């Protein structure tokens, strides 16, 4: 041992052994400084060989690091030899330890989980640790990598290497692995004359130069795994951080890189970022404007930082910025810091320009989609392309972090990326092409919803007069069972509402009417009553614009049904009277019969059984005259129910049993469920409680199969009444409680009556 570098190497080895013996991480410079009372800088210089420690300090340091007495003596002797050698020989220039990290960020909000994961990865490495941080443009990948690198820099005595690989740099081509290696070898002190020309030989020399060294390497802004792979070292004493807009799947699968996907900030973290930039007092003074800014920036760190800087520099109120960000067409202009790196639109463009033409085309068209997410099938219809090719493009967009597959088969993008895609489409795709794509998309959702609704309510109103074949390239999905239909509608519920609003706003009136009509059964059974009112109202307005009286009549009836279920009886009555007038004018006996049935239901809910009976009998007469068996079956049940409400329970049984027989022939499970409920009510009031329980249980089986939440709760409430009358109050209260839970979840006013029942002894 001749130099201070040699002695420092022994001290570092001693520190590593001490960590292993203690079963803990190596003592950091800060920890050693705290235990010795020396400066952090002095500790660093002793352990990197820049300074030869004085004899007393060496003795104290090696004792702290667990050296045996014999080792202490040997190290003291070695230290004296180094000092004596320095007296005889001019001291060579100290080697330069690379410290290439860029400046640390002032603060990092909302990345505690990712920082903890990085800490865990390097705690006890047995091989080269490679962490691949990926995420969309502007999400803060470099900030996370650099911040963590600074936090652990003192654990890497032999330096930190950093290179911007410019994988998505608009100013030129990505940095080649050869150039990156030249820079690293130079930083490691390898003379240029020793660097071979061949890439593989350069990579081998680089690995040799890093052997047994504690070095942290940050490979920022990588384009793909091929660019990164030659820069990976071969010793477990090194740690590599890679950041990329791509997911670097190959690096994860073939090189055992640890994926660290970086998503948007949480709402709280976004608030902390804004507060950190602007101050708590300023944000607290305008909380609504702060929320609007966070929403407009889609919780994207880059966008939030630019917005905060704009407020700081202008001194304007937060409300002014919120208004600018919320103005159509101005958002990207506001989110511009004056150069390419600080402009959200430009940063997104670097990812977009790297796409293949099919993926780029699909990305633009996704700007036409109303959100919040899309499936492969819907994307294929939007593009008018086969599903296989569309899936490949979606995969490419996901790997580029322009989309996220947040659930299997469902893809989404944050609002700023969606706005960017829409802007691209507006400026690139001809208007006829955009209109055709929107038509295909609405065709996809309308036809699939219609197919699903036919499985939910196969005996509902015919609407064939407004059904047209889907456009070329559209491949609607085809659920084949009731369960498949419910699953599809449940998954697509928010998308379908957004599609209906899009259709209404863009003048697609036929789509608006058909989609609103086809959603009605699902929204009713699942208790989405405010959505139901909205969709029915949109359908009615569209039918009026179309000038189609039959469509208007149907829309009036369905909107009346939506109002009835939430107890808006006056509104419901007005729409039913208008529907009845339209049907009479059109000489549509079936429609007239259905409207009378709706009127019967309306009067029944208001506690007017005689008025309800009058309309039910009118329905029955019209249905029998028209030979419409489905309407006739419904009317028979309705007449029976009205008799039961009037206390005429034997007559009720007679009518309801006729209805049940006809409904079972028609395989109408929804009508059958309603009729079993009517029979249960009549049997209960005849004192035939056991038979009533049987009827209600059959109703519950059917309503649960149908996904009819309100119907299930309504029947549970009556079943509880019957069990209470049977002398089984425990079971009765359990039924009432289940009914109350459903009504409460649905936010339905019928919860009040059930809550009152639970107050009974």
Features:
five-stranded parallel sheet; elongated; 65% helix; P-loop_NTPase; mainly alpha; TPR-like_helical_dom_sf; three-stranded antiparallel sheet; Tetratricopeptide (TPR) repeat protein/transcriptional regulator with XRE-family HTH domain; TPR repeat
What do you see in this structure?
Helix 19 crosses helix 21 and helix 31 packs antiparallel against helix 32 (649-666). By secondary structure, the protein is mainly alpha-helical. The protein has 37 helices and 8 strands. 46% of the residues are buried. The termini are far apart. It has a 5-stranded parallel β-sheet with strand order 2-3-4-1-5, sandwiched between helices. Strand 7 and strand 8 (410-412) form a beta hairpin. It is 65% helix and 5% strand.
Largest β sheet strand count, sense and barrel closure: 5 strands, parallel
Low-confidence segments, given as residue ranges, are none
Could you tell me the mean pLDDT?
A: 90
Q: Give the overall shape, derived from the CA principal axes.
A: elongated
Give the N-to-C terminal Cα separation.
Answer: 93 Å
The counted number of beta strands is 8
Structural class by SSE content: mainly alpha
Q: Give the strand content.
A: under 5%
- The total count of helices amounts to 37
Strand order of the largest sheet: 2-3-4-1-5
Task: Kindly provide the radius of gyration, computed on alpha-carbon positions and rounded to a whole number of angstroms.
Answer: 36 Å
The proportion of residues forming helix, as a percent range, comes to 55-70%
